[in-house]
Amino acid sequence: MRTTIGYTVESIGYVVGAQGLVSFASQTFFGTEWGWMHKVVDLPSTAYLGVVAVGLTLVACGVKTRKTPQRHKVA
Fold it and tell me: Which residue windows are transmembrane per the record (predicted)?
C-alpha cells in the first residue's frame, strides 16, 4: 500500500511542479498564460515558484514513502 501511495503522491508532485514551472516561465518571459494552472487560480508570476516548491515537496514525500522499509512483525 505504501508503494502505491508513494507513486501517487510523487506523480501528483510532478504534475503540480511542472505546471507551476510552465506558468512561471510563460508569465515571466512571454507575458502569456500556458498550461491549466491559470484556469484554476490567478496568481502573480512569483507565486508560481511556490507552486513549484509544493510540487518538489510532494515528489520528495512520495519517494520517501515509497522507499520506507516495511517492518514485519515476528510472532
Answer: 12-30, 45-63
Determine the average pLDDT of the residues in 50-72.
85
Q: How many CA atoms lie within 13 A of 39 on its CB side?
A: 4
Q: Is the pLDDT of residue 68 over 70?
A: no
pLDDT for residue 60 is more than 80? yes
- C-alpha cell of residue 41: 487560480
pTM exceeding 0.85: no
| Residues across the chain | 75
The 8-class DSSP code of residue 35 comes to S
How far is 33 from 57, CA to CA, in rounded Å? 24
Q: Rounded distance, CA 47 to CA 43, Å? A: 6
**How far is residue 23's CA from residue 16's CA, in Å, rounded to a whole number?**
10
